[in-house]
From TrEMBL:
<dbReference type="GO" id="GO:0016814">
    <property type="term" value="F:hydrolase activity, acting on carbon-nitrogen (but not peptide) bonds, in cyclic amidines"/>
</dbReference>
<feature type="signal peptide">
    <location>
        <begin position="1"/>
        <end position="31"/>
    </location>
</feature>
<dbReference type="Pfam" id="PF07969">
    <property type="entry name" value="Amidohydro_3"/>
</dbReference>
<dbReference type="InterPro" id="IPR013108">
    <property type="entry name" value="Amidohydro_3"/>
</dbReference>
<dbReference type="InterPro" id="IPR032466">
    <property type="entry name" value="Metal_Hydrolase"/>
</dbReference>
<keyword id="KW-0732">Signal</keyword>
<protein>
    <submittedName>
        <fullName>Amidohydrolase family protein</fullName>
    </submittedName>
</protein>
<dbReference type="InterPro" id="IPR006311">
    <property type="entry name" value="TAT_signal"/>
</dbReference>
<dbReference type="InterPro" id="IPR052349">
    <property type="entry name" value="Metallo-hydrolase_Enzymes"/>
</dbReference>
<feature type="domain" description="Amidohydrolase 3">
    <location>
        <begin position="163"/>
        <end position="430"/>
    </location>
</feature>
<dbReference type="InterPro" id="IPR011059">
    <property type="entry name" value="Metal-dep_hydrolase_composite"/>
</dbReference>
Amino acid sequence: MQSNRREFLSTSAKLAATCTLFGAMSGIAIAETDSVPSSTTSKITDSHYYLDNVLLETGFNYRDNTVVGTKTALHTLEIKQGKIVAILPNTQHQNSQLAAYSANNKLMLPAFRDMHIHLDKTFYGGPWQAPESREGKTILDMIALEQKLLPELQPYTQERAHALISLIQSKGSTIARSHCNIEPVSGLKNLEALIQVLDKHQQDLTCEIVAFPQHGLLLSKSEPLMREAMQAGAHYVGGLDPTHVDGAMEKSLDTLFQIALDYNKGVDIHLHETSPAGLAAINYMIDTVDKNRSLRGKVTISHAFALATLTPEQANTTAQRLAEQQISIATTVPIGTLHMPLKILNEHGVFVMSGTDSVIDHWSPFGLGDMLEKANLYAQLYTRPDEHALSRSLAIATGNTLPLDNKGKQVWPVAGDDASFVLVDASCSAEAVARISPRQASFHKGNLASGSIEKRVG
């Protein structure tokens, strides 16, 4: 029965994502408070300005003790040098000399965070190309295929990385973590190209880089290249399935962690293994961090599919251990047969992030680059479809930053916060998650990263 439910949810999630293509409307209808003339712009050059007609969540509506709705109100934000310096009554400008823009009554949500993506190798931005059949193929077969494909993709690395960045920004993500191939076929070429791309996005994107030995850290003898990548600007040491790919779990993980310790870097490893080897690797990483406390808060396990094989009791124990060592989990919120214990992880205080992973590449053609879709999937698979639970589900897309706390107290935005946010055509967070509502504009530290905004005249 549970399997049938997940199949149904998988289908309904895809239908919900499709609805975004037709611009599902939120139903909000709030009139402008004045009729100041305006013009549309896709660029803000002012370092100090007002943003009027911003819809902010202010609290919950209750029936008895049950949340039945979300309170909102229009405000003006004063933004200066990338920060929100004041939250004011709507259209109340203390300095008439400052430029003013209008959010056109759109809901303001925290910037989304795409914390697992591969910007350096994608079909996106090029002609349509479906992946080859994976029937009967192992991960080692896929690695062999990639070794042939990479030289064909590398001439387009920068062009397509820019296109992929534009896509995720249009969906509200201005913070990201990109894995970047480091192996003998690519050398440091992909890393060098990605650094150049990100240098051009300094004003509209914050992106960490994980040096990723996609062809196996030990299998492809990539340790020297990984060490070069640390010196060349990578922020994290990556890894891949230490048992199924490298064939030596302890040696593979010891090598990975030693690179991280030598260069004072974080760790973010792909762990797809669902056999007992996957859980053994998770426990070994927990023990390693416990022995090397400087790694606490700096280790992420991406995918971590082995957690889906645990009983609730085992999941509780493992979640507690992960939380104690401040190890985070990055998930794509998988649908189908893998039912991850994400709710249990959250309950124990494990920081759970989400990411796109593939958009269109030789692994998968289904990625939308949309973290709001991930929040929607999380809500469908792991929570209840009520106002409070839907609003809480947004956290997986925003790095746990929410406008309201669990009791309905407004906690974001506050003066001093980065002016990094997304404007959404929805009446509240719950609606945005449930309907995967359209995005109007994305801001990163006061800069308009994507979309358009009205500039008020006079």
